[in-house]
Design goal:
Elements: H1 16-34, H2 39-43, H3 48-72, H4 97-113, H5 116-120, H6 122-145, H7 147-155
Helix pairs in contact: 1-4, 1-6, 3-4, 6-7
């Protein structure tokens, strides 16, 4: 923006879905490059049913949480301004139900594809989300909504 105006968004390092997809693709590439065994061959158990359950749960969380943003008339993408503090629905139990949904979808894909490396990358992905996305969003929301957001943080956990 020009004229010294501050940008009205959280300033996250990347869009969260892009981070999840990037880590998944990096894991699949590592599986291929290093010839890693699949999770199915290691456990002897098909990951299709657990993957379907996790994926369905993840998409349900994702869409229910996103619907709350739509109802509140605020933006979902992290590069757009937040115009309302959403604290209803799933947001009464978790400050990040969209990211919880994305994590379940990531796990569903890991299991469905049998990617050992993508599973091993999950802690790094969650650390990147914590430092590069969630903390930045929390600073932004605290600056924008002040005491209302601080009170919300006190009563609602970050994940579950």
């Amino acid at each position: 923006m020009s004229g010294g105006e501050e940008e009205d968004h959280a300033g996250v390092i990347a869009h969260p879905p892009v981070l999840y997809l990037g880590f998944l693709l990096a894991g699949l590439a590592a599986d291929w490059a290093f010839g890693l065994p699949s999770l199915t061959s290691l456990s002897g158990i098909s990951g299709i049913l657990p993957a379907a359950v996790l994926g369905a749960a993840g998409f349900a969380l994702l869409f229910a949480a996103a619907w709350r943003f739509v109802k509140a008339g605020t933006n979902i993408p992290t590069h757009r301004p937040s115009t309302a503090l959403v604290t209803q629905g799933l947001y009464r139990f978790s400050r990040n139900p969209i990211y919880l949904g994305l994590t379940l979808i990531y796990l569903a894909l890991v299991l469905g594809l049998g990617s050992l490396a993508a599973l091993a990358l999950l802690p790094a992905l969650l650390a990147v989300m914590e430092i590069g996305v969630i903390r930045r969003e929390e600073r932004y929301l605290e600056g924008k909504f002040g005491e209302a957001y601080r009170a919300y943080k006190q009563r609602v956990r970050r994940w579950l």
